[in-house]
Amino acid sequence: MTPDRLDHIFSALADPTRRAILARLALGTTSVTELAQPFDISGPAITKHLKVLERAGLVIRGREAQWRPCSLNAGPLKEATDWLERYRQFWEGSFDRLAEYLKEVQTNGEQDG
Amino acid sequence: MTPDRLDHIFSALADPTRRAILARLALGTTSVTELAQPFDISGPAITKHLKVLERAGLVIRGREAQWRPCSLNAGPLKEATDWLERYRQFWEGSFDRLAEYLKEVQTNGEQDG
């Protein structure tokens, strides 16, 4: 995977409207008009967000119908997760240390009581 | 978690230099000078990248020493992964479908041969 590809994916995810669009598409394929309904933003703004999502490969627009249905393509989300997974040991490590600390505090508390 | 927080995290990850900084910090705490060495960019540019990473909570700068050591803070990477995990069924679903298709193609090929 080129670094560029991860740039596009993470960049596409860095916006609440775009994440909401993905959440909507997770429920099923829909039209741009339907997609725009819950958002208080203009048609052109939705189109712009869709272009960012398409560039990242997260949304696929059908060509078979005049309304060009939008669908979720989850593959790039797996790529992002694969990159993040390399760091799992670090966050699990810190939670382990927190758990150890809390256990220690609790044990000391019991000894004191 | 506020949407804002995920915006900062994903935005911080959408740059190859910032991802490389995190990879370097995964090896251990270091100074900004050492951190800048492998990159062909200016000191101010590194400082700017560090500010974006700090805002996302991914990098913590020590205050105990004059050289203000930089450390990785992996917690926000877990938050990003938690968000992505909601979509796991979608990418696993598509890979399952691909695996089924490939199996089918292979089986048909064997029958033909």
Structure explained in plain terms:
The structure is a homodimer of 113-residue chains. Chain A has 113 residues and is mainly alpha-helical. Helix content of chain A is 66%, strand content 5%. Chain A contains 6 helices and 2 strands. The first copy, chain A, has a two-stranded antiparallel ribbon. In chain A, helix 1 (3-13) packs antiparallel against helix 4 (43-55). Chain A is elongated, with a radius of gyration of 21 Å. The N and C termini of chain A lie far apart (57 Å). The interface between A and B is medium-sized, with 32 and 32 residues.
Give the structure's gist in a few sentences.
2 copies of one chain form a homodimer. By secondary structure, the first copy, chain A, is mostly helical.
